[in-house]
Design a protein that fits this description.
The protein is an alpha+beta fold. It has 2 domains: 91 residues, SH3 type barrels, CATH 2.30.30.40; 45 residues, no CATH class. Helices cover 41% and strands 22% of the residues. The chain is built from 6 helices and 7 strands. The strands form 2 sheets. A 5-stranded antiparallel β-sheet has the order 6-5-4-1-7. The protein has a two-stranded antiparallel ribbon with strand order 2-3. Strand 2 and strand 3 form a beta hairpin. The radius of gyration is 22 Å and the shape is flat.
């Protein structure tokens, strides 16, 4: 009977080790234009480094909606929100073969209806709307310390 607890503990350790190895082996892609790796799993924590769209990262831990990852090209690990990551490999300059392997004809048809530079230029030329203010707003970057101060002064939290 004394062997049962030892066997159960051994099995538990084996399962935990297997899960850790599987998690560490998982690679993900950054799916946002600029993704920040943070020192803690919180939006206002210190930025360790920034990664670009398509960069690959190795997953090592999970905490809620946050993933601890390390850049595949080297660098310090950090935390990134799951919304900025994808399990799909992102190919920046795909060949026809890559496109055929990655997407069905229905997916390609839907993507073809999307918004791109040419469509945007066409809307601009046909519309009386002034898009210059939208372009200006897209360039605004608010430092995390100012956001944190705003949240704290307004009693909205923001201590993280």
């Amino acid at each position: 009977m004394k062997r049962f607890p030892t066997a159960t503990a051994g099995l538990t350790l084996l399962l935990a080790a297997t899960a850790a190895v599987a998690l560490a082996a998982q690679m993900m892609s950054v799916q946002v234009r600029s993704g920040q790796l943070r020192d803690k799993p919180a939006f206002l924590s210190k930025v360790v480094c920034s990664l670009a769209y398509g960069d690959r990262v190795a997953l090592s831990d999970e905490k809620g909606d946050w993933r601890k990852v390390a850049p595949a090209k080297g660098g310090a690990p950090g935390w990134m929100h799951v919304s900025a990551l994808s399990e799909q490999v992102i190919i920046l300059n795909p060949t026809d073969k890559d496109v055929e392997a990655a997407a069905s004809s229905d997916e390609l048809a839907l993507a073809g209806k999307g918004f791109n530079k040419q469509v945007e230029d066409q809307y601009r030329s046909q519309s009386r709307l002034d898009y210059s203010k939208v372009d200006e707003m897209e360039k605004i970057v608010v430092p995390p310390n100012l956001i944190r101060d705003f949240l704290q002064k307004g009693g909205l939290g923001g201590g993280q």
